[in-house]
Amino acid sequence: MEKEVNQHTILQAILELSKQMQDMKSDLQQQIEAVEKRLGEKIEAIEKRLEEKNEVLEKRLDKVEQNLSRKIGLVDAKFDVLSVDVITTKAEVSMLKQVK
Asked: pLDDT tens for residues 19-31?
């Protein structure tokens, strides 16, 4: 009889441990899901911030490109004026040399 009681006690302890393991497994699974959810939310927030910053940087880059284009156009116009002045000056010098 004592052997049966011991086996029954052992079986009951095994069942209790099994239940505790299942409860722990369920708890860990819930914790993992909660962490995954929080990480997903944080990743989405970071992606949104990066997109916003990217938009700001693109706008700034557009402004820089426009400024550079305007300045390059201005420098190009100045070179045109200078080259015309140089040609005019050379022509005048050439005419003066011919007069002598």
From this structure: 999 999 999 999 9
Token pair of 86 as six digits? 């140089």
100 DSSP assignment: -
d(CA 63, CA 56): 11
Q: What is the mean pLDDT of the chain?
A: 93
CA distances to 18, 20, 89 from 9, rounded to whole Å, are 14, 16, 116
CA–CA separation, 96 and 100 (whole Å): 7
Pairwise CA distance, residues 45 & 42, whole Å? 5
